[in-house]
Structure formats: C-alpha cells, structure tokens
Design a protein that fits this description.
Strand order of the largest sheet: 1-5-4-2-3
Order of helices and strands: EHEHEEHEH
CATH class: Alpha Beta
Strand content: 15-25%
Structural class: alpha/beta
Shape: globular
CATH architecture: 3-Layer(aba) Sandwich
Low-confidence stretches: none
CATH topology: Oxidized Rhodanese, domain 1
Distance between the termini: 30 Å
Helix content: 25-40%
C-alpha cells in the first residue's frame, strides 16, 4: 500500500467518523495536548509496535506539524498498513478550533 498525506479538513471528517489515529510525538508533547482518541506511539518505537495497528482500515498518523507523521506513515505503509499522514498535524487541528486533550487519555 502506498502512503499518502491528507489535508486537515479530510482528517477532521474522518475523525468524526471514528478514525483510528496514532500520534507519533514524544510523550511530553502528547500530554501537552493531543487529538481526542489518538493513541501514542512515538516515532522511535513505531517499528516495534506495528502489530498494534489495524490492517482493515486507514490509520491516520499525526505529529506536531506533519514531518514525523509522514516518516511514520511511510514506514507503516511498507509494513502493509494503509497509513495516512495528516498534513499540518496537531497545530493545524488546533488552529481550526478543534479540541485537544491534555494529559493521559
């Protein structure tokens, strides 16, 4: 499967529909504010946790701005995951007035 980037508007709609979301930032960043429902899998451990990702639906990968998520999505795609990096990341999500969860979820 080929990785791809998606615009924040599409991600917002998919999130409303219950998308599977992975946040690849570091724990301290994640705890400062993350997309509701996003699972924390820091970029450095993505290869060790690929078995946790669904293979039957898209996985939306998010970070702060979209750089780390693109790297993670490319790695996931090579492993057979339909991974989609969210362009603009958590910053774009927050700029559109979408909610952030602080701390652990």
């Amino acid at each position: 499967m080929q990785e791809q980037e998606v615009e924040i508007e599409l991600f917002t709609e998919e999130h409303r529909r219950g998308a599977f979301v992975v946040d690849v930032r570091e724990p301290s960043e994640y705890h400062q504010g993350h997309v509701p429902g996003a699972q924390l899998i820091p970029l450095g451990v993505v290869p060790l946790r690929l078995h946790e990702l669904p293979r039957d639906r898209p996985v939306y990968v998010i970070c702060a701005s979209g750089h780390r998520s693109l790297t993670a999505a490319q790695h996931m795609a090579r492993a057979g995951v339909d991974a989609r990096s969210v362009r603009g990341g958590t910053h774009a999500w927050a700029r559109r007035g979408r909610p952030l969860v602080r701390g652990h979820e």
